[in-house]
Every structure is written in structure tokens, then in C-alpha cells.
Design brief:
- This protein is 37% helix and 33% strand.
- It contains four helices and eight strands.
- An eight-stranded antiparallel sheet has the order 1-2-3-4-5-6-7-8, with no helix packed on it.
- Strand 1 and strand 2 form a beta hairpin.
Length: 171
């Protein structure tokens, strides 16, 4: 119950911050997903991919990240991390009840470090590899793929190691 209350409070605060900031960004991440969908081909394939991405929930996750994280960063810093150029850096601090995090965004990479609190010093990196079209998690000296699109196949790797695979084509 305490964990649910904590999550609800964080979500409510994030929604208030977004609503009160007057921020309307360019939704770069959502646009990239949409453009990838549009590049597939005919209207039937595009529609099938759209439904698959809504069920999986790619659009919902991208929309949430755009509204809550990326557009807030864009509002306060003037730059969206998804549209960053080489050598650009954006550093933000985020506080929760137990820890304060530093999020360092560079092109194709997010470094998240606990700077204050009980987990001080712990860090992870979320890295996009455009060569293999995959997002990877780097933690405790290990790198693991957490999501990858290869051709028309999407693979999502869950924390327990199970893999969700789906074909985005309509045949």
C-alpha cells in the first residue's frame, strides 16, 4: 500500500508539473516512432503496425516519456534530449522520497546516477545503438539489450529475462 501511495504521489506531482509549466514540446520521440511506422509501406501494413504498437504499448510509453520526461527537460533547458546533436549534454536532477538522481542526457544515451540517499553512488546507463536499432541497459558492469527492432520484428526483454517477440508485419 505504501509503494502504491508513493507511485501515485509521484505521478500526480509529475502531472501537475507538466500541466502548470505551459510546456508544449515537439514530441520528438513520438514523432520518430510515428515516422518509423509510416515508412513501412502500404496502408494495411501501417495500420497493422499501429495496432500492434498500441497493444504492446509502444505509443503509450513513448507518449508518457515525451510528456513527462522529455518535454519537461525541453521546457526548462530549451533542448529535447532525443533531438540532441553530438557533444550536447543536458543534466537534470530528480528527487524522490529516498534518493536524488542525476540524469545526464547525451545523444543516444542517458546516464542515471544516485547522488544523494541510501543508494548513493549506484548508476545505470540506457544506451541506444543505432547500428542494431536497440536500447541497451548498462548496470553493474553488464550490458543487456532491453528492446530491439530488427526488420519487422520487435523484441522486448523483461527484467526477469523473458522475451516478448512480435512480428510487426501484416501477412
Amino acid at each position: 500500500m505504501k509503494k502504491l501511495r508513493k507511485i501515485s504521489t509521484i505521478i500526480a506531482l509529475l502531472l501537475v508539473v507538466v500541466m502548470l509549466s505551459g510546456c508544449f514540446g515537439n514530441f520528438a520521440l513520438t514523432r520518430k516512432v510515428y515516422n518509423k511506422n509510416q515508412s513501412i509501406g502500404n496502408k494495411w501494413a501501417n495500420t497493422a503496425v499501429m495496432w500492434a504498437m498500441m497493444i504492446i504499448p509502444v505509443y503509450e510509453v513513448c507518449g508518457f516519456l515525451d510528456v513527462v520526461v522529455l518535454n519537461t527537460i525541453e521546457f526548462w533547458s530549451g533542448q529535447n534530449p532525443v533531438t540532441m546533436n553530438e557533444n550536447e549534454v543536458d543534466i537534470q536532477k530528480v528527487a524522490s522520497e529516498d534518493n536524488t538522481y542525476e540524469i545526464k542526457a547525451t545523444k543516444n544515451r542517458y546516464d542515471i546516477t544516485v547522488v544523494e540517499g541510501k543508494d548513493k553512488g549506484k548508476s545505470v546507463a540506457v544506451i541506444y545503438d543505432p547500428v542494431v536499432n536497440a536500447w541497451k541497459l548498462q548496470a553493474d558492469g553488464h550490458i543487456s539489450t532491453i528492446a530491439q527492432i530488427e526488420g519487422s520484428r520487435l523484441e522486448l526483454v523483461y527484467p526477469d529475462g523473458s522475451v516478448y517477440k512480435t512480428d510487426l508485419r501484416l501477412d
